[in-house]
From TrEMBL:
Family statement: Belongs to the alpha-IPM synthase/homocitrate synthase family.
PROSITE patterns: AIPM_HOMOCIT_SYNTH_1, PYR_CT
NCBIfam families linked to this entry: citramal_synth
Underlying gene: cimA
Alphabetic keyword roster: Amino-acid biosynthesis, Branched-chain amino acid biosynthesis, Isoleucine biosynthesis, Transferase
Domain Pyruvate carboxyltransferase residues, every copy: 9-282
Parts forming coiled coils: none
This protein's pathway: Amino-acid biosynthesis; L-isoleucine biosynthesis; 2-oxobutanoate from pyruvate: step 1/3
Catalytic reaction annotation: pyruvate + acetyl-CoA + H2O = (3R)-citramalate + CoA + H(+)
Cited InterPro entries: 2-isopropylmalate_synth_dimer (IPR013709), AIPM/Hcit_synth_CS (IPR002034), Aldolase_TIM (IPR013785), Citramal_synthase (IPR005675), LeuA/HCS_post-cat (IPR054691), LeuA_allosteric_dom_sf (IPR036230), PYR_CT (IPR000891)
Taxonomic lineage of the native organism: Bacteria, Bacillati, Cyanobacteriota, Cyanophyceae, Nostocales
Protein name: Citramalate synthase
Organism field: Okeanomitos corallinicola TIOX110
EC number: 2.3.3.21
Length: 545
């Protein structure tokens, strides 16, 4: 591995170690393996896999990775320096990271005198010896060492001479990287710039190959407690740091670590540094969603660069301009990071939103068409009554088809009735729905039970339609949300029901609004089935063509 071009930066991902220190995040060995391989594909050169001496899961993880190694990344175990007044060679934790069988290891040591005297309860000299012995021992075992200077910035601010002594000790002992950590996340960018510049002056930062360099390179590891983690990492890089540590989606202890999903595009697209390949940068959005799926945390829809809303345009003025030139309201092209532009429909829309939506549905509509204005007016009127089409794009599509006289009537609901039994002492209610539907001029009457009125209604409707449209057997109701819009008016409150449906490949959301919760739900359920049929027949048509 060599670093020559001055614009080359080394990314170090710690999702599998510091990321898992986030409250509420827990992963299995299989999850860790899947994430490691995905980060490898993304082109991250260093992946911190965990602390093998600290728990059996991390020991297993490193062993299993040996059987199915990464393609390009260095997998790195993490550990502290030896404890006070012990021999490095006798430390079980250090034996555990050696047993992980990697080329690189990361150890963290104390930079802040307060931590030495109060945390470790040892002398400042012994702390220096702990750093030196540990690095020398790991090097004697053939490992390349990354030294994380914990609490570097706080330590430097309190006692700069001692803090500098700790990293000079690490450098002399042979660490190849000195990573300055803003462990408590309280430092501001101007302080980072100043302090990193001092370190670079003191330590030197020659451009040379990693394996030959006697002078360690400087890295940065920042936390987000002041919401400065990304800004601080950028400030450090601009001051000369060559390694950037962070995590996918910014997961990490307390408020998280520097978010690589923001750092990488900022470094690469804005500042011109080279971190990962262009074809890898456009996997960033997918990687962010993959990791959130594996760790079972809902993705942040508003995350910069990779969030679903990162390139979503809602205001009519924005949509009008973006349609003419995306640069007007987008700082980068969404495709560069694997994301996509979305046009959101709402009461804040103008004709441009409607036209863009029509285009995305394959319909030609222009600003002078009277239907375009009608669609906009109808949508705004419905929004004023409680509809929210940005959350129910399928219902908006049906509204457009209707206005353009393209809405196919697959069936017509003539009426329905729902009865609920609430029996004292029974925890669940039984509901029975009867429904009358007309299909191709034929009336069908069906009844079905469900554990709630909406489930019963959905079941009765499907029963009535299944002989005409067998494909609805593949549709499922995946989510159902209800919101009371003017809760202060008691029973006269308006209910908004959102139903999410799916067919195994796609999901779509429909909406219903009424002062009757059943009526609102019924509208959303019916449109959900109708839209599913529409998708099915559109796909059929395309296939036949
Ligand atoms: C800034 C960071 O994020 S550092 C990483 C933090 N991550 C974690 O702590 C997660 C994994 N940790 C663990 O599983 C456990 O804490 C272990 C296995 C490491 C240690 O467990 P225990 O031996 O029971 O100790 P405990 O967690 O109570 O205390 C930490 C010990 O590490 C010592 N320690 C802390 N930093 C260092 C260091 N840089 N070098 C050596 N020892 C250190 C503390 O002084 C304390 O020692 P003591 O118990 O002799 O006083
Ligand atoms: C090492 C580390 O995770 C920190 O100092 O924050």
């Amino acid at each position: 591995m060599s670093i020559t071009p001055s614009s080359q930066l080394w990314l170090y991902d710690t999702t599998l170690r510091d990321g898992t220190q986030r409250e509420g995040l827990s992963v299995s060995i299989e999850d860790k393996l899947r994430i490691a391989h995905r980060l490898d594909e993304l082109g991250i050169p260093f992946i911190e896999g965990g602390w093998p001496g600290a728990n059996p899961k991390d020991v297993q993880f490193f062993w299993q990775l040996q059987e199915n190694p990464l393609k390009q990344a260095e997998i790195v175990p993490f550990c502290s320096t030896r404890r006070p007044h012990t021999q490095a060679s006798d430390e079980p934790m250090l034996q555990a990271i050696l047993a992980a069988g990697t080329r690189w290891v990361t150890i963290f040591g104390k930079s802040w005198d307060l931590h030495v005297t109060e945390g470790l309860k040892t002398s400042l000299d012994e702390n220096l010896a702990m750093i030196r012995d540990t690095i020398e021992y790991l090097r004697s075992q053939g490992r390349s060492v990354i030294y994380d200077a914990e609490h570097w910035f706080d330590g430097y601010k309190q006692n700069p001479d001692y803090a500098l002594q700790t990293i000079k000790t690490a450098a002399t002992a042979g660490a190849k990287w000195l990573v300055l950590c803003d462990t408590n996340g309280g430092t501001l960018p101007h302080e980072i710039t100043e302090i990193v510049s001092v370190v670079i002056q003191e330590i030197g930062n020659e451009e040379t190959t990693l394996t030959q360099s006697p002078i360690p390179q400087i890295g940065i590891h920042t936390h987000n407690d002041s919401e400065m983690a990304v800004a601080n990492a950028l400030a450090a890089v601009m001051a000369g740091a060559k390694m950037v540590q962070g995590t996918i989606n910014g997961y990490g202890e307390r408020c998280g670590n520097a978010n690589l999903c923001s750092l990488i595009p900022n470094l690469q697209l804005k500042l011109g540094y080279s971190c990962i390949g262009e074809h890898q940068l456009n996997q960033l959005t997918e990687t962010s969603r993959f990791v959130s799926e594996v760790v079972n945390l809902a993705p942040d829809e508003h995350a910069p660069f990779v969030g679903r809303s990162a390139f979503a345009h809602k205001g009519g003025i924005h949509v009008s301009a973006v349609e003419r030139n995306p640069l007007t309201y987008e700082h980068i092209q969404p495709e560069q990071v694997g994301n996509r532009r979305r046009i959101v429909i709402s009461e804040q829309s103008g004709l441009s939103n409607v036209l863009a939506k029509a285009k995305s549905l394959g319909m030609e509509l222009n600003k002078n068409d009277p239907q375009a204005k009608q669609i906009l007016q109808k949508m705004k009127k419905l929004e004023s009554e409680g509809y929210q089409f940005e959350a129910a794009e399928a219902s908006f599509a049906l509204l457009m088809y209707e206005a353009l006289k393209l809405r196919k009537q697959f069936f017509e609901v003539k009426g329905f009735q729902v009865n609920c039994d609430l029996v004292e002492g029974k925890e669940t209610t039984n509901s029975l729905a009867t429904i009358k539907v007309a299909v191709n001029g034929k009336n069908i009457l069906e009844a079905a039970e469900g554990n709630g009125p909406v489930a019963a209604l959905d079941a009765a409707l499907r029963k009535a339609l299944i002989n005409f449209y067998p494909q609805i057997a593949d549709f499922e109701l995946t989510d159902y949300k209800v919101r009371i819009l003017n809760g202060n008016t008691g029973t006269a409150a308006i209910t908004r029901a959102l139903v999410e449906s799916g067919n195994g490949q796609q999901r779509w959301t429909t909406i219903g609004v009424s002062d009757n919760i059943l009526e609102a739900s019924y509208q959303a359920v019916v449109e959900g089935l109708e839209y599913g049929l529409l998708l099915y027949f559109q796909a059929e048509k395309v296939l036949k063509v």
